[in-house]
TrEMBL record:
Keywords: Signal. This is Solute-binding protein family 3/N-terminal domain-containing protein. The lineage of its organism: Bacteria, Bacillati, Actinomycetota, Actinomycetes, Mycobacteriales. It comes from the Bacteria. InterPro entries: Solute-binding_3/MltF_N. Residues 63-152 form the Solute-binding protein family 3/N-terminal domain. The keyword Ligase does not apply. Pfam families: SBP_bac_3. It comes from Corynebacterium efficiens (strain DSM 44549 / YS-314 / AJ 12310 / JCM 11189 / NBRC 100395).
Length: 178
């Protein structure tokens, strides 16, 4: 049907006046632009996105936190209680996304493998932006600088919506603007 109408229009094209042809071209361009813009807004609604859906799984669910003990950022008592400035930040983030926390303690090397294998959602423990584990995890933007070291947290590679949400929370909590 569309092809038939287009074919009829093209056969009459030489007989149409210059203004009519100009209006038809403008209408066609406007229609194409409308389709293009509507598809762009649909695409941008899903950016940033998580390849494995970490943010949507964690929201109203469980946030699995890998903790490498590194006072004063993270400490673990003999009774298994977690404390420290990063522990407090992660507790606040979990509340922000309405998640329960499951803690997993270990050395950075083990936690780097766990986050690479999607076994933990975030790694804390005094990580800096020069962490040797950046090939295993995405590092947040620095949320603090202490003695020239830029402090970061680790999130799964490709989980951009989760990373952005954590960074937004850290910025709001620490009084920064994004």
């Amino acid at each position: 049907m569309l092809f038939s109408a287009l074919s009829s229009l093209l056969s009459c094209w030489p007989m149409l006046g210059r203004m009519t042809r100009l209006l038809l071209v403008k209408a066609a361009l406007l229609g194409a632009a409308t389709v293009l813009l509507s598809s762009c807004s649909t695409i941008s609604a899903n950016i940033p996105a998580d390849s494995a859906g970490t943010l949507s799984r964690v929201e109203d669910g469980t946030l699995v936190v890998g903790v490498s003990e590194h006072p004063p950022w993270t400490e673990v008592s003999d009774q298994g209680e977690y404390s420290g400035s990063e522990v407090d930040l992660i507790r606040g983030f979990a509340e922000h996304v309405n998640a329960e926390i499951e803690w997993q303690q270990g050395p950075e090397s083990v936690l780097a493998e766990r986050i690479k294998n999607s076994e933990v959602d975030v790694v804390i423990g005094g990580l800096t932006d020069s962490s040797p584990w950046s090939s295993h995890m995405a590092l947040t933007r620095p949320y603090a600088e202490i003695d020239g070291e830029k402090m970061v947290m680790g999130t799964p590679l490709g989980e951009n919506a989760f990373l952005v949400e954590l960074e937004r929370y850290l910025a709001e909590e620490l009084g920064e603007t994004q």
